[in-house]
From TrEMBL:
GO terms for molecular function: serine-type endopeptidase activity. Residues 1-27 form the signal peptide. Residues 243-314 form the PDZ domain. GO terms for cellular component: outer membrane-bounded periplasmic space. Residues 666-683 have a biased composition (Acidic residues). It comes from the Bacteria. The keyword Iron does not apply. This is Carboxyl-terminal protease. Coiled coil: none annotated. Its EC number is 3.4.21.102. The lineage of its organism: Bacteria, Pseudomonadati, Chlorobiota, Chlorobiia, Chlorobiales. It comes from Chloroherpeton thalassium (strain ATCC 35110 / GB-78).
Amino acid sequence: MMYKKNFFLSFALLCLVSLSPVYPAIAQSSAQPDTTSGDIEPSAGYSRAEQIISFILEKLHYREFSFNDSLSSEIFERYLKTLDYNKTYFLESDVRAFATHRLALDDDLRAGRLDAAYEIFNVYKDRVRQRIKWAQARIDERFDFTLDERYEYKREDMKWAATETELNEVWRKLLKNQALELKLSGKQPSEIAKILKDRLANQQRRIEQYNVEDVFRLFMNSVTASIDPHTNYFSPMDSDNFKINMSLSFEGIGARLQSENEYTMVYEIIPGGPAFKAKQLAKGDKIIGVGQGENGEIQDVIGWRLDDVVKLIRGPKGTIVKLQIIPAVGGPDAPSKVIKILRGKVKLEEQAAKKRVLSLNHNGKNYKIGVIDIPAFYLDFEAYHNGDPNYKSTSRDVERLISELKQEKVDGIIIDLRNNGGGSLEEAIKVTGLFIPYGPVVQVRRSDGAVDVNSDDDPDVAYDGPLGVLINRYSASASEIFAGAIQDYKRGLIIGEQSYGKGTVQNLLDLNSYIRFGDQRFGQIKLTIAKFYRITGASTQRKGVIPDLQMPSPIDPEDAGEDTEPSALPWDVIQAADYKLSQKINGQVVSKLIKTHNERLKTEPQLKAYIEEIEKIKENEDKNYVSLKESTRKKERDEIEQIRKKIKDLMSKSPENASDKKPDSQSEDAEETVQASEEEDILLNESGEILADFIRFQR
């Protein structure tokens, strides 16, 4: 039975992968911050909201569960981790004192008691103040960078500090590490001291700005995340931000940010936005400084509140913002760099699929491989509902691009879904239909156990030639539905990395429809209501899509992906749908492709250098510490930079692979963007080689 279209239209945008409860803070909270030294106390309105949220979660969430002692313990641990992820504030004695609440939070939730959550937060607030005071007294001390010391920065799995003395030593090394980072970036001793003082002052200001709403949001998201990583509580401010995000009309750089420890981290690059087009910012990058215009001074933002950082980054369209970042690839010791991004609006047309052609000299023969880059599965809902015959959608654009590539007589086509976080489910189904005659594409199982099969009913096929689909660890949701269907029908080769594994569906509930408490607003709950399944019956949850041909990757699957979330819903299997294989891909051919691909990994200079870089990066990231000895630290950084330079030199000198440099786009700067990315896109070139091999083996 077809899943009802009006239901899809209601949640299609929500299928944009939400890898964590993070949205850019672009408005101040309406509640007043607590700027006194006193404790923050829960309000009666939030007590009532706690009861309602708990009831909604138990009754409406896809996962069948009840609040009990086991879940209470999980919430307790997650709340402590939310407040003190790196175990640099609480002492072991504090955590022991909190233990009386470990098995009581489930009862508190039902009763609307928030005392424990606020009690723990108030202790945290005091500990932050104490740490800042201790650090401020030692900023002017000179650090000896010739000593062979190291700072263990991954402390989440370590024990809580037993004594003040032990915690003081952690903080001494933390400050020394920050000072060394600044020294290696060229800062003088006087500048280093000033920057560290400013960071501590910002931390002090941030902790004093917390209010009753902030604490409630922190605690309730600890509750929701213990049930499922995509079920979140949105405060009124978060709800407003979410609506702005979904409209894709805000001005800025087009990136969603989150706070992690004292850093502002890039959580998602929005397709079609300025950061997406600039190709200089990536998921996981840490923003440590912000400057305005070409010549504006970089302002250090470590320790700032997220909303204050976002205020600096946002600005009028057409203006430049400078960001000092620590790249995610390279580990915590990666050298920082400054990038410039021209602010603008995120527009639907700039998310549009684009094409290019790779010209390959493969085994003495020339091949033309068409590439269609789909950054998201989009649909202009407003134009569609208004009956506009020219409404934009992924399926329409991809069908047009296929037609153009066929006119250019390409030998094969690659669909590039790297970093595509999802989008409209209907569009993912329609795009799949461009490559298969007809049949089921995805199954959706609701919380009541009912399963709906969603099919492509159009027998027409836009392209039936050699097909590859390129995915990476950040391809998720609707991307996984498309890639999974192409693989299950044996219609094309899946190339790249294991995808993210987000196989759940969310919907929004407005809490203000359930709670009346004066003029107080309570925000929304984003709730998991269903799961996706492939036509084979296997869930996309946790496991995602496993490629036919694996590419080397700097991303460790244990560090990113749905299966890294402890509360993620399980992978499971339901009954397979009724479908007919295309039989364009067979196991023998795939085995030959794997063999030739592995040979290139060992012999091609670009690929060898790329793998060398990955191995060095992973070696650094596998360590849970960094050296505090200046000579050692500098040597490690130089080694990574030398490898990266080697790759760039090899790519710029490579005469074999080229593009016709004719992207399909309506934006003036699209051609420049595509050209800039192609020079270093080793994986796309190798995907072209794989598809050329496939064509050769088929003849």
